Amino acid sequence: MKDSEKLNPTLVNPTTQQRPSHSHSAKIMLWLILAVSLTYFIYTLKLVSTSSNCNHGPFSINHHSSSINAANSTTISSSKRTELRHVVFGIAASSKLWEQRKNYIKLWYNEKKMRGIVWMDDNVKTNPNEGLPPVKISTDTSNFPYTNKQGHRSAIRISRIVSETLRLGLKDVRWFVMGDDDTVFVTNNLIRVLNKYDHKQFYYIGSLSESHLQNIYFSYGMAYGGGGFAISYGLAKALVKMQDRCIHRYPGLYGSDDRMQACMAELGVPLTKEIGFHQYDVYGNLFGLLAAHPVTPLVSLHHLDVVEPIFPNATRVEALQRLTIPMKLDSAGLIQQSICYDKEKRWTISVSWGFAVQIFRGIFSPREIEMPSRTFLNWYRRADYTAYAFNTRPVTRHPCQKPFVFYLSKAKFNSTIQQTVSEYEKHRVPHPECRWKMANPSALDKVVVYKKPDPHLWDRAPRRNCCRVMKSNKKGRMVINVGICKDGEVSEP
């Protein structure tokens, strides 16, 4: 017998010989598996628990801490809002025009609340009782090259006003605001605009010319100095270090504002556009522009010597003095347009609060009424509608569609009803004969507008106020209420 064929005692009776050994091994294996499983389970629980504590805990704490810090940050920022005392005005002036132009500055400057310097080319007579900013003579700029044959060297000294004002070392300054001596600022609205931005960052804030050709010739990225512009303190510090070198590189530029923009370009700072700064590079009557002001705070008016007085039968200064009355009552709402309808009479009504009310026969869409009518000429004294950097509409020639205009005559605050009450009297000019068989606005002599002051108007998303025609018991008088649009209220023709 071969060894392979020899009987193995363990294989003689497999049923009786293997069962005890297999059963014992199975028990050992089972306990081993249970032990390993239990160990793995405990380890997994510990790992998950540790992971949860490590990963989620700090995020939760940091999130809570961030919320607290954000809340504190909001509180701090709101308690440190920019105020007029944080602004320094740099006013570019000419000694030859000072006696005339200083009257514009008197309209808006308050020596008790504001700081400013009038930078002059030569000495002028000053009177400390006039309440004007102090006058300083600009530094000599004869060492700077100037080669533009159409311009004037004064552009160089004016372009350095921000730097020269910074070098005075005034304390607690956040913004330098540049303007001309024929610029009128609505200072409360200026502060509303500046509070949108961080003065520690680099900001160059202003707006363009109304003239498309001016913007093409100079720049669509330039703030026009007459309309005014604002330079943050952080940017002014950077500018003062390089501006003189920058000016030397641009002898061929025309004005001060394009030199400023050239230096902004070297600093890599773009223009932040705020269209409430108004250069007004136009001639004639500003009525169309003011009666359809864009939905943004009115910050400045310029070229007031070039255009007609904004109110009829008044001098330029007298007209602006009248505008300061509603400006003090509700600066946020000044010259803001509202559009509504008297559907019974089929009239369209446009209210430019604090300035004028227009009543049109017929129904015009808001899309049309919110466009300025061309009551003015462009900077080249032409009636060319393609010359503007915004949409305009023609002055109507239809005898029945000429608007009836009512100009502000007076305004006051009624403490009983907590509203402003402004009155607008009809501008008495001849109207062409109209054969339409409909109610005639010529029967009206006065429009009375009620409006609650709304200092937080620009803290919300931009939107025109709504106006509503109210019942009037007096003949020849229309009563209108202006205010925040109610839920679902629209200017629907």
TrEMBL record:
Residues 10-20 have a biased composition (Polar residues). The chain crosses the membrane at residues 28-45. The keyword Amino-acid biosynthesis does not apply. One of its GO terms (molecular function) is acetylglucosaminyltransferase activity. Residues 1-20 are annotated as: Disordered. The keyword Transmembrane helix applies. It comes from the Eukaryota. It holds the Pfam family DUF604. Keywords: Membrane, Transferase, Transmembrane, Transmembrane helix. This is Transferring glycosyl group transferase. It comes from Medicago truncatula.
